[in-house]
């Protein structure tokens, strides 16, 4: 029996544009998914026979990282699914790591690459942002150009991404979950259609790429005012890409007066927003009163880790 856990993430800047090869900046958050792999008489998930349709990520992870005899995979999640907080990445990374650990090899870069291939296959189109952040933890910058703190590189079709480590200063974020489950694949496909047919949408993608680089600089200086401004602008551009939702607007408006800035995070279409603030309890209250679920998160936490290599399991 092998148990691994992996964190969810919040995208601070650059979601959607990163799928077009632009940069993105994501931070690991202290909500984790724990996966345990053990021998079984059939391929199963949480004791139920594995079905490709129901267990898309886990079954794709099996194809990518296992190839051995039947196993059962148990998962325990702290991350709401379809919330924009990287639950699919964390389940994929924790499963891939547990499968690889079971075969005696858990190299983070291999886990991150295999996990990206799984997400790309299941979603039809993906960037390595979520899976790299869940694997490496702390902060991750994904960019077409090589930067400082380079980790590894991946190419997919005409797109190419360099993955970098990014240090994360002490900052306070509150997540507001709308409770609306939104699947990433169709949202990503919708943005592609828009960008292919609209010059303004293509320009928005370019500007988001610039915002990310300005954001990386502001994060290094812990410049909360600048970070907040960039978050607001990034959010406006995401609305232009038609991945917003009235519930997200309601939560963001509710946080405005107590935040440096706020934006949707992840795929959008529902899911979650994030606010950067010095006043966590006021912002959490505002989100709750506006009908959302506030989650106060720690950012820049540890990435994938082996919890148990065969002895007693930590739960
Ligand atoms: O909502 P999530 O956690 O699936 O994040 C999706 C992020 C996108 O940029 C929209 C897609 C991607 O693969 O990077």
Q: What does this 3D model show about the protein?
A:
It is a single chain. The protein has helices spanning 56-65, 87-102, 108-123, 129-136, 184-197, 199-220, 224-240, 246-255, 280-289, and strands at 2-13, 24-39, 44-45, 48-49, 71-77, 139-143, 150-156, 159-166, 173-177, 261-265, 272-276, 293-297, 305-308. The strands form two sheets. Strands 1, 2, 3, 4, 5, 6, 7, 8 and 13 form a nine-stranded mixed sheet that branches. Strands 10-11-9-12 form a four-stranded antiparallel sheet. The chain is of the alpha+beta class. The longest helix has 22 residues, at 199-220.
List ligands, each type once. (3R)-3-hydroxy-3-methyl-5-(phosphonooxy)pentanoic acid
Radius of gyration: 19 Å
Give the percentage of residues in beta strands: 25-35%
Q: Helix proportion of residues, in percent?
A: 25-40%
Strand count, sense and closure of the main sheet?
Answer: 9 strands, mixed
E-strand count: 13
Q: Could you give the order of the helices and strands?
A: EEEEHEHHHEEEEHHHHEEHEE
- Helix count, DSSP H or I runs of 4 or more residues: 9
């Amino acid at each position: 029996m092998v148990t691994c856990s992996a964190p969810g993430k919040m995208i601070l800047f650059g979601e959607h544009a990163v799928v077009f090869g632009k940069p993105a900046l994501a931070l690991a958050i202290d909500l984790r998914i724990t996966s345990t792999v053990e021998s079984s008489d059939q391929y199963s998930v949480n004791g139920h026979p594995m079905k490709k349709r129901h267990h898309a990520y886990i079954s794709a992870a099996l194809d990518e990282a296992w190839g051995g005899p039947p196993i059962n995979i148990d998962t325990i999640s702290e991350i709401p699914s379809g919330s924009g907080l990287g639950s699919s990445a964390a389940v994929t990374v924790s499963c891939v790591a547990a499968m690889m650990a079971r075969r005696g090899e858990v190299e983070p870069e291999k886990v991150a690459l295999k996990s990206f291939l799984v997400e790309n296959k299941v979603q039809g189109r993906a960037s390595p942002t979520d899976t790299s952040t869940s694997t490496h933890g702390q902060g991750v910058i994904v960019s077409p150009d090589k930067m400082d703190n380079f980790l590894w590189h991946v190419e997919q079709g005409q797109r190419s991404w360099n993955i970098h480590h990014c240090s994360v200063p002490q900052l306070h974020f509150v997540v507001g979950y709308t409770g609306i489950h939104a699947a990433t694949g169709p949202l990503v496909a919708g943005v592609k259609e828009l960008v292919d047919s609209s010059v303004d949408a293509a320009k928005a993608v370019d500007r988001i790429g610039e915002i990310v680089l300005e954001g990386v600089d502001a994060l290094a200086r812990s410049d909360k005012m600048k970070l907040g401004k960039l978050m607001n602008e990034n959010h406006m551009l995401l609305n232009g890409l038609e991945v917003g939702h009235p519930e997200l607007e309601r939560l963001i408006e509710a946080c405005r007066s107590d935040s440096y800035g706020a934006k949707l995070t992840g795929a959008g279409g529902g899911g979650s927003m994030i606010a950067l603030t010095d006043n966590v309890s006021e912002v959490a209250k505002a989100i709750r009163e506006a009908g959302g679920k506030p989650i106060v998160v720690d950012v820049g936490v540890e990435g994938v880790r082996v919890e148990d290599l065969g002895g007693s399991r930590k739960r």
